[in-house]
Design brief:
Blueprint lengths: L1 H13 L9 E4 L2 E5 L1 H15 L2 H25 L7 H7 L19 H6 L14 H19 L2 H18 L9 E4 L5 H13 L9 E8 L3 E2 H7 L4 H6 L8 E2 L5 E8 L7 H6 E3 L19 E4 L2 E5 L6 H8 L3 H7 L13 E3 L11 E3 L6 H8 L3 H8 L12 E3 L48 H9 L6 H7 E3 L6 H7 L4 H8 L12 E3 L12 E7 L6 H8 L3 H7 L12 E7 L1
Parallel strand pairs: 2-3
Antiparallel strand pairs: 1-2, 4-7, 4-8, 5-6, 9-10, 10-11, 12-13, 14-15, 16-17
Helix pairs in contact: 2-8, 3-6, 4-8, 6-7, 18-19, 20-21
Amino acid sequence: MKLTAALLLITSVVFAQAPEVPDKMQFAGITLTIRDDARREIQKDVNMLTQFAKHHNIKVERAKTYFPIIEKIFAEEHVPDDFKYLVLQESALIADAVSVSNAVGFWQFKDFTAVEMGLRVDKEIDERMNIVSATRGAARYIKKNNYYFNNWVYALQAYQMGAGGTMKAVKDYQSGTRHMTITAETYWYVKKFLAHKVAFESYVSGPGEVKVYTISNRSKRSMKEIAEEFSIEEAQLRDYNKWVRKDHVPDDKVYTLSIPTRGESGKRNDAIARAEANNPLEQPKRVNAEPARAGNITMMLHGLPAMKAVAGETPSALAKRADINLSSFLRYNDISVSDRIRAGEFYYLKRKKSRGPVSHHVVIAGDDLWSVSQQYGVQLRRLERYNKVDRTDRLKEGTIIYLTNKRAVHSEPDIEEAVEIETGDSFNWTVQPEASPVPDVPTTPLPPQQTVEVESNVTLIDTMSTDTVAFQQHVVAGGETLYSIAKRYQLGVMQLVEWNNLSLSEGIKPGQVLLLKQPSKTITEPDTMEVTHMVKATDTLYSIAREYGVTIKELMDWNKKKDFSLSVGEKLTIVKKR
């Protein structure tokens, strides 16, 4: 009898009770209905995650330590709080976790993606292992994906397979939806995430055994000095700051240190109280980010803060929600208090500009002068003056609306053939609408600032015959995005990115020439020449690669570099096309 009781006790310690997967659950403001076939799959994962109490509790303790920091950053970056469970799925909150594909750190960034998100990765510092830097980078990456889809579920899917892969896999983005159904056909990564949410959600509240305070460091100091200042062991400091790969924290920018405290009280010592940058014990404001109430989020459009309107909202209500004076709000957006607010439109919280970011806009169905004004952040009265039209005039499809002056630099007809344009939320770098027929060979001179980039692309085509150029390249018109161009030519977004050595974070520009097919192996390679670059104090591999229009990998291969470190005065070989 005693033996049976002992065995039951041991079993209860080893195996945790698995939470049940519900048939409905909330994620990022979306109500998910989970079909039985998917629920069985998710439940198996939940059972595995909670099977051994010891392992489950270790992850729970890590979550209690780090979640307050992650929650605060997500609130600041306007990312739904639910995404914090993704870090458990990616790394189990192990700072120096490394995947089989060489992704590193809390949020499992590959080196190139980390650099693109603004993280430093080299022999001295690897911010992928810094909970603050990596989480902020992850938040930006998640938001970038959501701009494509306006659907947090697909933004989650894109975290694993990329935005381009998700675009190929998903036929209907269900933009702005508040309800989705999870089935056996739902992408495995999404179901795995839901399993982590169910497995940990009810366990991670309350303080952990270790509390971490985040401290900003602005000067070059050794880890030993920092440990002495905060009265902790150097080994313990290093355990929570594995992103410092040498003996010193450099002073090239402000880095955030994690200072652990143990014990039930987890009190700050005097040094922490003086130097503390952010207190994770404060309860951050949570962001639900309901798709139908995306107006809760302020974003930057053309360098101006803007807020998306909700259905049924009035100018007064929107101004109140934006916390600005009503008269100022009306003036900024060229509206009156009696005007109807258009749901889904972005309204500016500062005065619009006198000139647009591009020379002109080609009217598409549904456009009026006010919507063009809002689309480009240009004052309505300026558009009236530039185009000699009234705000109440109906605009004919294909009409050119000038955004910078009365006539663009190159004279153009008043009507152009309208092209299909992707609408909806987009990055600030999205080229604004402008359309022109694609010529057989581009003859219009490009703006000076685009010379280097365009020459690089055109050189690859110089050896082709004139007859084939029109079918293998596309001259970017205003208003086009990578997605709209890919859709037009039935290509994948990532194919365009790879063939043209593009960056998703920077996008494309009017006049830029894009290859529409992978360069043939039979094409004669253009002549090249080697140049030498002398490394400056402000240089990084990324900035040098951008300067010469090459990739970081090419730089590393040409110079036989095994990491991202550079020394002032170091000479790098660059292979340039003649």
